[in-house]
Amino acid sequence: MGNYYQPEIETASREKILEIQNEKIVKQVRHVYENVPYYKKLMDEKGVTPDDIKSVDDIKKLPFLTKADLREAYPYGLLGTDLKNCVRIQSTSGTTGKRVVAFYTQHDIDLWEDCCARAIVAAGGTNEDVCQVCYGYGLFTGGAGLHGGSHKVGCLTLPMSSGNTDRQIQFMMDLGSTILCCTPSYAAYIGESLAEAGYSPSDNKLKAGIFGAEPWTEEMRRSIEKSLGIKAYDIYGLTETSGPGVSFECEEQTGMHINEDHFYAEIIDPETGEVLPEGSKGELVFTSLDKEAFPLLRYRTRDICVLTRKKCSCGRTHVKMCKPMGRSDDMLIIRGVNVFPSQIETVLLNEGYTPNYQIIVDRVNNSDTLDINVEFAPDQFSDKVSDTQSKEKALEGAMRTMLGIGPKVHLVPPKSVIRSEGKAVRVIDKRKLHD
Length: 435
Ligand code: ADP
Ligand code: ZN
Hints:
single chain; 19 strands; alpha/beta
């Protein structure tokens, strides 16, 4: 049994959670219907009224919202309250197109920071910890969310933001940081930089890392845990629903508990919109149950995921989501085969390579090409061309087994793939330039 930030709700019985959700959804749908003309119109078109929503079971009657709606309604079209009640905006990192802005009342900020505090406590955080936050600060939600959560837990908070890795390391060592919060790709980079500076993993005081905002594999987790000498916890979220903290990992590390008192999750078939039963793989959809300023109902995340209600040894009762396999729009279709960058990462790390890679997709003579640049680890580097070629062939074979299509692998010298301080850009799809 672990520690909880809000034990009463985090370990509440299923009946209690349902009761809370049912009460909140009735109020929330009415709030949205009365205050968000954009969504009222969608409900009217579907012939649904607030009276039709009596429990979370009825959520399936509501229309979906998509990123396209958010872009159409930009900036104020989905606002659920007067601007004078709002105290903050945050914005998406714009990974996949035009930015989306989200609004928060003080109540919304509070519930978001509570969610992040739950994540920090689940990772072992207490008021005795020194929490180094190196997610980006500013419009991006990563910095603000974990910063607020860290305050709530009472950790000594280091608001580092991302970048300036030498300074990150200096503060980490001088102030004895015990918890590190950043993207997994930046955590890997910090681990690499620590080793280069001559530190071994036991030289730092870190015990846990809270890493998210981008997809990362179990292999990547193990590699980071080893390089930093910590336990690495996953955290998930998106600007549209608040930011990080929608769900978080506990010590069992078998999925992330969704904060169900604030967010109701569904898995749908992305083609038909049909709600799928527990355990099915599909697109994750969130309804925020009590946000005031940006109260999205049935928001389609495009993240591909599975939900499970299997009992968790940590004592938390909230539903768990698996690591998202990546967004449906991260999925590459190469010669008709679906490829996720995370599959490539798994092969590389399993074969003993570093997580420093880049995927280049192009179309030559009407046929798709897949090239993967992978760095040698410094101790693997060889001047012999034949050595390199046989390693490349071996990797190509392992990739073919995993992906079902054969890429061209290029082993490149250490440090030639650009490092990430935030969300890593793993894929360059040149086909988009031709279209
Ligand atoms: P953008 O859509 O511009 O990247 P956000 O910063 O709001 O904007 O990113 C949210 C997205 O980041 C999620 O929808 C998901 O695809 C990804 N993400 C966040 N946390 C995780 C995580 N722990 N694992 C995998 N993907 C994640
Ligand atoms: Zn758990």
